[in-house]
Amino acid sequence: MSDIRFRLLTLVLLSVLSFVNLFGAAAVFIWWLVFGAKTTFAKNSWKIVVPVSIFIGLFPSVVLYFTGGDFFYGAKIFVLVLLAFWFSASLLPGELMSFFVWLFGQRIGFDLGMAAEFSVQAISEIREDFGRMRAALRIKGQKFSVSAVPSLAAGLLILSLRRAGVQSSLLARRGYCSGGAFVPFFSPGVYDFLMLGTAVCLYGVCLI
Predict the structure, then answer these.
(1) For the whole model, what pTM was predicted?
(2) Beta strands in 41-193 (DSSP E)
(3) Are 137 and 148 in contact, with CB atoms under 8 Å apart?
(4) How confident is the model at residue 4 (pLDDT cuts 50, 70, 90)?
């Protein structure tokens, strides 16, 4: 039982709160530990989430440290990246289509929803392809290294372009032009209300 509308509103509130001040970022991080960490690590390895989040957050901190800016800005970015991992991991097939059709209608909403669903599907397929490539390297007795990144990236790009070409050809052959018929479906649960309610409470406390 999950409703993307509640999760998206929660994401917006927490994202804004994380940039209000350092206390807000700390509160959002605690929220993520309580509500988002389990979902995040259910679909993403901690070996990816933690290093990527630290690196993205550390870079602006280093730059601002030497330029005299807000050194703790990187902590806010770190929390924001964790939220992004949580939201992407919480997405279910068809949710983006339901959301955009509910928000913009059957024409524009359908097009936006289909594009969003294709994008999420492409990212998932890239992740799977990358996993298979790493497995192939292990079978060959080779280790993943920086020198292998260009060739792997080129392979992933070619595969993605081929899939996109096949999808566009299928849509064209079926006569797709624009818009479509889709009935949005949402199934809010208690956990959605709890997450949103906690985010609203944190927002109110940190802004008082």
Answers:
(1) 0.82
(2) none
(3) yes
(4) very high
Cα–Cα distance list, 20 to 70, 83, 202 (Å): 13, 16, 12
Alpha-carbon span 119 to 142, nearest angstrom: 31
Q: Could you tell me the maximum CA-CA distance found in the chain, to the nearest angstrom?
A: 59
- Residue 187: what pLDDT? 86
CB-count exposure of residue 179 (10 Å: 0-12, 13-18, 19+):
middle
Measured CA distances, 17 to 26, 33, 46, 186 (Å): 10, 16, 24, 26
Chain centre distance of CA 61: 23
Minimal CA–CA distance to 120: which of 101, 95, 156? 95
11: number of Cβ within 10 Å: 20
Q: 152-160, long-range: CB within 8 Å, 24+ apart, which pairs?
A: 155/129, 156/126, 156/129, 156/130, 159/125, 159/126, 159/129, 160/122, 160/125, 160/126
Cα Rg of the chain, angstroms: 20
Kindly report, residue by residue over 9-32, the tens digit of the pLDDT.
999 999 999 988 888 899 999 999
Structure token digits, residue 60: 């602006």
> Any idea which residue has 């039982």 for tokens?
1
